[in-house]
Amino acid sequence: MPDSRPAGTGGRSIGAVIFDERTIAQRVSELGVEIAQHYRDGDLLVMGLLKGSFIFVADLVRKIPRPHEVDFMIAASYGTGFRSSGDVQVRYDPETAVEGKHVLLVEDIIDSGNTLNRVSLLIRRRNPRTVEACTLLHKRVAKDLEVEPRFVGFDAPRDFLVGYGLDHAEDFRHLPFVASIEE
Ligand code: IMP
Ligand code: MG
After folding, report:
1. Looking at ligand 1, which residue's alpha carbon is closest to its atom 22?
2. Which of 29, 33, 134, 172 could bridge to 151 as Cys pair (CB 3.0-4.6 Å)?
């Protein structure tokens, strides 16, 4: 019998689709407009936090109808587990000039908030004009966020989610929708 699971899923199964492709596209377009309306003047730098945000950033920036720069940082804390280790490592930092610019940090999902806290402290030290955050998904469990995201795609269930850039052990990022995964 051929195995019908997608290649490379390590035997994990996808549960329910939580946000489908159309729903995500619609909300991403709205976020782009909200962001453009918020930043009336000044230089805007959209800083995606890799790897999870790569699809979201690619879709989002095409919906922000005002000039802006795009860059990325890599911060990681999960390894192959389902929970944040709390030890956030910045693995790639382009050290793009941020002084005097509006910096918009873009996350795929906020769970513990450790990643966003770590990166926002780092960016703040470089004298940006403002630091705000945008996340596609917010689990609303994080306490003591350094930056409460101003732009939120969706409140998310507290399940472990995959797809649209989100992974489990590097699988499932390519899925065009967001789904839960059986833990
Ligand atoms: P936090 O530091 O706990 O807020 O988690 C932030 C990062 O962990 C996100 O950028 C994701 O890469 C990853 N993450 C958190 N929750 C999930 C999830 O449910 N599915 C996949 N990745 C997640
Ligand atoms: Mg991840």
Report:
1. 166
2. 134
Three-state DSSP at 168 gives strand
Residues 6+ away with beta carbon under 8 Å from 58: none
In terms of C-beta density within 10 A (0-12 exposed, 13-18 middle, 19 or more buried), how is residue 105 classed?
Answer: buried
Residue 141, pLDDT score: 94
What is the CA(76)–ligand 2 centre distance, in A?
7
State the Cα–Cα distance between residues 151 and 132, nearest whole angstrom: 8
Provide the CB-side half-sphere exposure for 157 (13 A, CA): 13
Residue 92: predicted pLDDT: 82
How large is the average pLDDT for residues 118-126? 94
What is the position in ligand 1's atom list of the atom closest to the CA of 156? 19
Q: Are 77 and 86 in contact (CB under 8 A)?
A: yes
In the predicted structure, residue 8 carries a pLDDT above the cut 60:
no
Cβ-based neighbours of 157, under 8 Å, separated by 6 or more? 18, 139, 180
